[in-house]
Amino acid sequence: MALLDVKNLSISFHTRHGETKAVDNVSFSVECGETLAIVGESGSGKSVTCYSLLDLLPKPPAVVESGSANFDGVDLYQCSNSQMQQFRGNDIAMIFQDPMTSLNPFLTVGEQLIEPLIYHSDSSQRVSRNAAKQEAIALLDEVGIINPEARFDSYPHEFSGGMRQRVMIAMALINKPRLLICDEPTTALDVTIQAQILKLIKTLQKNRDVAVIFISHDLAVVADIADKVLVMCDGKTEEQNCTNEVFQNSSNRYTQALLSAIPTGAKTTKSLAQDGSPLLKIERVKTYFTDFSSSSEKVVKAVDDVSLSLQKGEILGLVGESGSGKSTLGRSILQLAPLTAGTVSFAGTDLSALQPSQLIPWRRKLQMIFQDPYASLNPRMTVYQTLAEPLLYHGLANKKSVAKQVEQLMDDVGLARSSVLKYPHEFSGGQRQRIAIGRAIATEPEFIIADEPVSALDVTIQAQILDLILELVKQRDLTMLFISHDLSVVRKICDRVAVMHHGNLVEEAATETLWANPKMDYTRSLLSAIPATNPS
Amino acid sequence: MIDPSQPTQQGSSLWLDAWIKLGKNRLALSGLVILLFLIIISLLTPWIAPYSYEEQNLMLGATAPSAAHWLGTDIFGRDMLTRIMYGGRVSLMVGFIATAVALVIGILWGAVAGFVGGRLDAVMMRIVDIMYALPFMIFIVLLMVVFGRNILLLFVAIGAVEWLTMARIVRGQVMTLRKQEFVEAAYSMGLSKWAIIRRHIIPNTLGPVIVYTTLTIPSVMLLEAFLSFLGLGIQPPQSSWGLLINYGVETMEEYPWLLIFPGITLSLTLFALNFLGDGLRDALDPRASKD
C-alpha cells in the first residue's frame, strides 16, 4: 500500500468574486522511498495541493470540496486538529522555496533545529537539551554543513543561501518524517548550488527511505531526481507517468510545451554584432564598498579590475553565481553604483567622468531591465503612467502624441492596448516583465542591461520573454548586456559570454567556443551544474 | 479594445481612481458628509447661531435641554448649542490647520532625509531629536511670552510638535522604498531626485501617513483643550470642544448635558475622520480590491 494516496481531490477558493477551482479532481500516490514531482506553471494548483495535505491553506477562502488523502491509513482531510499537529513535522515535513525568509533571524540555527525535539507536542518524546544538540549536529553534518559543531551557534544571516537551504532540510528531517514535501526548494538558488541541493535531497532520500513530493515549475530540474511526474495545468492533471515516459514518449501537448520551453542548445539566430569601434568599452573598472557591519571596516571588492567591450548589435552574456559582482558591474556601467576606479566609455564619451546632471541625456540611451517584475514597477502607477513617464520626461513625446506612443509601445511588447489603465498588480509576472521591458525601450535606447530578466518567471513564460527580447534587439538595433546565472538561457540568446567569479572576470569567449572548450575550472563547474534535460 | 480615435484615457491617475473608489465606499462617504456638514455649520455660525456665545444670563443658570435651548444652558446661562457651534470653529480650525502644517513639514522633511540619506539624513534627524527633547510646555510658554497670546501661534506651536512623528514615519517608509527596484528604475531613466520623490516615493508612503493623520487630528484637538485649560490657548468666553468637555467634566454629576453634548460632537467628528481615513487609505492603494 502506498504511503500517501490522494484520491479525487478538488479544492476551490470561495471569495466574494465567486468561486475559483484551484485543484480539480487530482489523484496521485507516493510510496516509501519514492519521489513524485508535481510540475506546472504558477497558478496550476501544485502548491495548493501540497499545502492542503498539511492543512496549511487559509480557510476560508479555501475549501476542500471532495477527495481523500490516505496517509498510512488515516485520511488527512478528516483528522482532528490535534491529530494534524502530530502529522506535521513528525511524519510529514516541508521545505519552502525561499531559504532567506523561512528561518528566524533572531535565533541561532542550532536553537531552531532542536526546538521541535525539546518542545515536542508529545511530552513522552521530548529529549534533553544535550541529546538534542548531539542529534542536531549529526544532522547538520549529514546535510553537508562543514564544521557543524561551530556552526550550531551561528545565526541564519551568517549562512549563504545554499547553506541555509541545507539547514532548512536538516530542520525538516529532525523528526525523521516519512514524507518530505519540497516546494520549489532550488528556485531561489544558483545553478551550482541547485545541483548540490538536488543531489543532497536524492542522497538523503536513499539513506532514509523517505517519500518525497517535489514541486517545481521546471521539468529540467526534476529530470534527475523524480521517479514519477505529475504534470498539472489549471488545477487539472495533464499527465501522470514515470519520469522516463514523460521525458521521452509523452504525447500530451501541454507536457510537450513545457519540455520545449526548456532552453537547450545553441542560439538559433545569428549574431548581429557589427564591426568597427566598440559601442561600450569599460576599462579596469573597480567598484568597492565599505562594509560597516563588521567591527573593523572591511572593503568589499564587488567588482575588481574588469575590462570588457561590446560591439554595436551584440548580446554579451555575463554569468556567475550570486555575489560574483555581475549585477554590481551592470549598475556601475549605468553609473548607479559609483566607480572606485576605471572608465566606462559609451560611444566615445567617458560616462564616469560626467556630473550627475550631465548624465541625464545619456541615461536615455542606456536603459535597464530589472530582475523582479514585482518590485521594479511602481505599484501606484498605471501602465499608462509608467510608460508615459520616460517619454514625457525626455521630451520624446508631447501631451498630444504620448497616448499614441504608449499604445505603440504596448503593441511592441505584446500587451493588449485595453489594459493600459490597469495597475501592475493586475498582471501576471510575465506581463509585468513586458511592461518593464516597454519602459526600458520607451526612450529608444541604444544599449540595455538586462539583469536576470527571466529568472523570476516560469519556464514557459521565460521562453516567451526571451523571444521578445531577441526580437526587440533585432528590430531596434540594440546592444545588450545580459546578466544571468542560468547558463542554458545565456547560451540560447547571447553571442559572447563573460564569466565572473568573486568580482573578477575569469573567462570571456564566443558562446559556442566557451561551451565546447571552457578554459577555466570555474567555468567548467558552472557548465556541469546545468540540470540535464533528460533523465539519466 | 479601446478605439484609438477616442480621446485617450490619460485622465486616469491614482487620485482620480481613488476618488471613484471612495465614492463607492459608503462608510467613508458618510464620514466625508458628516465632516463637510460640521465645517459648513462652523463657517456659517456667526449668522445662524441662535444666541450670543458670550452673553450671560445668570438668572437662568444651568438648565436642561428645552424648546428654547435645545442643548440646555451652562452655569452662566449661555446657550450650549451656540457655544458648541462656536467651539467647533476653533476646534476644527486647530485640528485641520495644525495637522496640515504637520503633514506638509513632516512629509517633506522625512522624504528628503530618507531619500538623500547619509550625512544630511543624520543632521536632519538630529534636529528632530532635539525638537523632541525640547519640553513642550516651555516651548509654548516661550512663544507666548515673545509673541503674545494669539490663536495663530497656537497652530504654529502644535504643528511644530506634531510634524516630528510624521517625519520619522515618512523617513522610515522612504528608506525602505528607495532601495526598491522601481525607484532605481526611475533613477536609471534619468529622472531628477525631486521627480522621484514626488512621483515614486511620496505616493507610496500614503497608507501609513493617512492613518497617522486621522490619529493626529483628534490628538491636536485635545492638545488645544489642554493648552486652553492651562490658560495658554484660547480664553473664555471663547470656547472650543476640548474646553467645553473640560468644564463639562467638572460639573458632570449635576449637569450631565454640559459634558454629553460636546462629547457627542467630538466623538462624531472622530468617527467621521476614522471612516474617511480608512476609506482614503484603501482608495489610494490600487492593490485593494476595486469594489
Your description of this structure?
The model of chain A has no long low-confidence stretch (mean pLDDT 85). Chain A folds into three domains: 1-91 and 179-261, P-loop containing nucleotide triphosphate hydrolases (Rossmann fold, 3-Layer(aba) Sandwich); 101-176, no CATH class; 314-337 and 353-528, Rossmann fold. Chain A is built from 19 helices and 20 strands. Chain A has helices at residues 46-53, 81-87, 109-118, 129-142, 148-151, 161-173, 191-208, 219-222, 243-249, 253-261, 326-333, 356-363, 383-393, 402-412, 429-442, 459-476, 487-493, 511-516, 521-528, and strands at 4-15, 18-30, 35-39, 62-71, 74-75, 92-95, 179-183, 211-216, 228-233, 236-242, 280-291, 298-310, 315-319, 341-346, 349-350, 366-369, 447-451, 479-484, 496-501, 504-510. In chain A, helix 16 links the parallel strand 17 (447-451) and strand 18. Chain B is mainly α. Helices cover 71% and strands 0% of the residues of chain B. In chain B, helix 1 crosses helix 10 and helix 2 crosses helix 3. The radius of gyration of chain B is 23 Å and the shape is globular. Chain B starts with 13 loop residues before the first helix and ends in an 8-residue tail after the last helix. The model of chain B is unreliable at 1-11 (pLDDT under 50).
